[in-house]
Amino acid sequence: MPLRVNTGRRWNSVKVPSDSEWIVYCNELSRKHYCLLIFPRRDTSRFLSLVPDTVPLSSLMLPGTHDTMAFYGWPISQCQSQSTPLERQLHAGIRVLDIRLAIVDSRLISYHGIYPERAPFAEILSTVHTFLTTPSTSCETIVMSIKQEDSDTRRFSKLVREEIIASPGGLGMWYLENRIPTLGEVRGKVVMFSRFGDNGYGWDNGAIGIHPPIWPDSDKLGFTWNCQDTMVQTQDWYAIPSFLYIPEKVALSTNILVANRDSCPTLSISFFSASSIPLAFPPTIARGLGWPQWGIGFEGVNTRVGKWILAQFEKCEENGGVDRDPRFRGWALLDFYEDPLGMVPLFVECNFRGRKSGEEGWVSIV
């Protein structure tokens, strides 16, 4: 079956036979020149099975979704397509969940700001448990950021604990230490990243997982904090003035994912999402608008990020291959992650580039 290239985008995944061992990307260099990049096809539902237990989560590239359950409220509150429910996200390779909750009638329900997103926390927990206890995917781990979207701090913290205890797997399937674990420590578990509960009220020894002490609102330059011996750098500039700031947003969000080989242990967390009224709605920022390849409209964040990753890989091939592979590490959270198709496999492939035995906990090259 011949390769079929759709040149309607600046880059895209190329359709190949379903049983092919390879995935192919076409990156547009100019109007008449294209570059094909070929990578091994990896099973996104269980890609972490190929990573050694000794690798810390800070040395992985974990794709995530911003406002994971925000399927409603278009165009202001919706951040994910209704065709990508949580189960599909997990099998697609999403490993960082951004769960935002509020108390409704003594239950926790997913919310985005003041907009109800309908899914009960109990339902989310059940879906995650099923994924992590299915034999083919029990080798995986999931980072779950839990953010409070209402103001009753103590009651919220108490309800999170109670609903986890009542869910399948209970507290036993959660990693609750405030440090960055290795992958082997958390296979089959959920790593809590708590954006609630200032002092861990209602939890044993106040243990509520990885707990950032600060989270400045929409800090353009990002911020850093320490999680024991790991420096965590975070980029969450979301209140961009308009779509004209997309290039700057992309530059800031991608730069922190380039790992410094000689630095101290570092976890980079990058939100590729943005929203402001009326010129930067989430769907527009993520997907772009119009037909930019014809000079009508503009490219969204996702297309630009994919092009950036492919360009770095292309430079690597030009400069000599594996030993000079760029190291992209961190947790990358996207809106509308399937638009364009091929975004998540690109992030997954970053886990197998720039690796050397003995570095970053890597004991062998896969």
UniProtKB/TrEMBL annotation:
**Domain Phosphatidylinositol-specific phospholipase C X, which positions?**
53-195
SMART domains per record: PLCXc (SM00148)
User: Which InterPro entries does the UniProt entry name for this protein?
Assistant: PI-PLC_domain, PLC-like_Pdiesterase_TIM-brl, PLipase_C_PInositol-sp_X_dom
Q: Which GO terms describe its biological process?
A: lipid metabolic process
- Molecular-function annotations in GO: phosphoric diester hydrolase activity
Q: Which Gene3D superfamilies match?
A: Phosphatidylinositol (PI) phosphodiesterase
**Out of the domains of life, which is the source?**
Eukaryota
UniProt name for this protein: PLC-like phosphodiesterase
Q: Which organism is it from?
A: Rhizopogon vinicolor AM-OR11-026
